[in-house]
Design a protein that fits this description.
By secondary structure, the chain is α/β, with parallel strands linked by helices. It is 43% helix and 17% strand. It has 12 helices and 12 strands. It has a 7-stranded parallel beta sheet, sandwiched between helices. Strand 5, helix 5 and strand 6 form a beta-alpha-beta unit. Helix 1 crosses helix 7. It is globular and about 65 Å long. The structure holds nicotinamide-adenine-dinucleotide and 2'deoxy-thymidine-5'-diphospho-alpha-D-glucose. The site of nicotinamide-adenine-dinucleotide has 30 residues, from helix 1, helix 4, strand 5 and strand 7.
């Protein structure tokens, strides 16, 4: 019987990871620790929250005393750490929250795991989920490898880079059995509509303007969230201790091309004449420090562990649009209340 702590399990990627582990490993006890910030939503897990191997703990990873007590009480065998402040734009307006959660919160978890496991690291694992943004920005060619030097540009990516360094330092200094993965942009159901794809789906649906930063020429590599969850499962169980794995979709899109594809699909699904929603595109001031291009070289994960994406982009993208259209109540719930204030401050509407 293994006890696994998954942090941030009520968020976008975390909820897909929790679901996969709860369903696939009935002999594991899965503990979801989440503060339930604006981005955390227990509705994301309503299909599995009654399972006997699922446990929810509400708490803040920044609270060291609480974290230490939880580790002493539950005596976890493994940690999969996803809890984070995750939105670049919010990090530009409020960097301190990112330093507290992403840096201090991660170090609190590292300390608690080290203290609990220090007598015997056998069978233990601390898995830190990170981002490709730590590598900085690419020009028109090339891709990030695990050996690419870190060069973060936003407070978000700087906080994630810092937490990655702490995880490596705890491995090198204390022998903590850790592993890290750095993934590209995820898309899919349950993503908070501050991120490009769900925000633009919601805006197109409501005939609201689509704020494209700069010229829309920035490039992102998109991966379906369930493929990321599958990679996390594989790395947690089979990844080499002390190692780093890049995860990517091999699926690069310029923002403006992705937005036009989204418009094409939605105009069709909403029964509007083709191209109707193109008029919603509004070019706005660019994001400060906006990274031009991300691309991932996931060769190591493929050759060592045999992972590759399974969901074709056309299929995943279409299914994603369908999910947001079918889950109107979910979207309405998360865009009520404080979301309105965020939107006004961010986009001035
Ligand atoms: P998210 O914002 O949707 O979810 C984050 C979750 O963490 C929420 O449930 C929130 O309530 C919880 N949380 C925040 N602060 C907390 C705290 N102090 N204590 C406990 N819980 C807290 O994020 P996401 O997009 O699902 O990202 C999850 C992880 O994956 C993050 O570490 C992120 O850096 C990384 N990542 C995300 C992407 C992406 O495209 N979304 C890509 C690569 C890596
Ligand atoms: O690469 C992995 C990262 O991907 C994760 O670590 C982050 O947690 C996640 O938020 C995501 O970061 P991005 O900044 O790439 O994602 P976002 O959805 O915010 O933006 C995608 C692109 O779209 C980016 O180039 C900025 C642009 N954009 C975004 C928004 C919200 C716009 O043009 N307009 C917008 O309103």
């Amino acid at each position: 019987m293994k006890k696994i702590l998954i942090t941030g399990g009520a968020g976008f990627i975390g909820s897909h990871v929790v679901r996969l582990f709860v369903n696939k490993y009935p002999d594991y006890q899965i503990f979801n620790l989440d503060k339930l910030t604006y981005a955390g939503n227990l509705e994301n897990l309503s299909d599995i929250d009654q399972k006997p191997n699922y446990h929810f703990v509400k708490g803040d990873i920044v609270d060291a005393e609480f974290i230490n007590q939880l580790f002493e009480k539950e005596r976890f065998d493994g940690v999969i750490h996803l809890a984070a402040e995750s939105h670049v734009d919010r990090s530009i307006t409020n960097p301190m929250e990112f330093i507290f959660t992403n840096v201090v919160g991660t170090v609190n978890l590292l300390n608690a795991a080290k203290n609990l496991w220090k007598e015997n690291y056998e069978g233990k694992r601390f898995y830190h989920i990170s981002t490709d943004e730590v590598y900085g920005a690419l020009g028109e060619t090339g891709s990030f490898k695990e050996t690419t030097p870190y060069s973060p540009h936003s407070p978000y990516s700087a906080s994630k880079a810092s937490s990655d360094h702490f995880v490596r330092a705890y491995h090198d200094t204390y022998g903590l059995p850790s592993v890290i993965s750095n993934c590209s942009n995820n898309y899919g159901p349950n993503q908070f509509p501050e991120k490009l794809i769900p925000l633009f789906i919601n805006n197109i649906k409501h005939n609201k303007s689509l704020p494209v930063y700069g010229k829309g020429i920035n490039v992102r590599d998109w991966l379906y969230v369930e493929d990321h969850a599958r990679a996390i499962d594989l790395i947690f169980h089979k990844g080499q201790t002390g190692s780093t794995y890049n995860i990517g979709g091999n699926n690069e899109w310029r923002n403006i091309d992705l937005i036009k594809k989204l418009i094409e699909i939605l105009d069709h699904k909403l029964g509007r004449p083709a191209g109707t929603s193109l008029s919603l595109i509004t070019y706005v001031t660019d994001r400060a420090g906006h990274d031009l291009r991300y691309a991932i070289d996931a060769t190591k994960l493929h050759t060592e562990l045999g992972w590759q994406p399974t969901i074709q982009f056309d299929e995943g993208f279409d299914a994603t649009v369908d999910w947001y259209l079918a889950n109107e109540k979910w979207l309405d719930n998360v865009t009520s209340g404080s979301y309105q204030e965020y939107y006004r401050k961010m986009y001035g509407e």
